[in-house]
Design brief:
Keywords: Membrane, Transmembrane, Transmembrane helix. This protein has about 60 residues and is mostly helical. About 75% of the residues lie in helices and about 0% in strands. Helix 1 packs antiparallel against helix 2.
């Protein structure tokens, strides 16, 4: 049987890291930008960012190991 060798996987690692950390950073930034106008909506964005980060670290982190 021929072993299938994979070349450089740096691009895949970068994509996984962007999926893991990109949306929580964007949601946090949006939360800080709208914090003065509507604090309740900003709090919702912060909660979504935290949940996405926890889930992203769990799923993407398990794929990295």
């Amino acid at each position: 049987m021929i072993a299938l060798e994979v070349g450089n996987l740096d691009g895949l690692l970068i994509i996984i890291l962007v999926v893991m950390f990109g949306p929580p950073l964007a949601l946090t930034l949006i939360g800080f930008l709208i914090k003065k106008e509507s604090p309740n909506t900003a709090k919702t964005f912060f909660i979504f960012a935290t949940l996405y980060l926890i889930v992203g670290l769990g799923i993407c982190g398990s794929m990295l190991t």
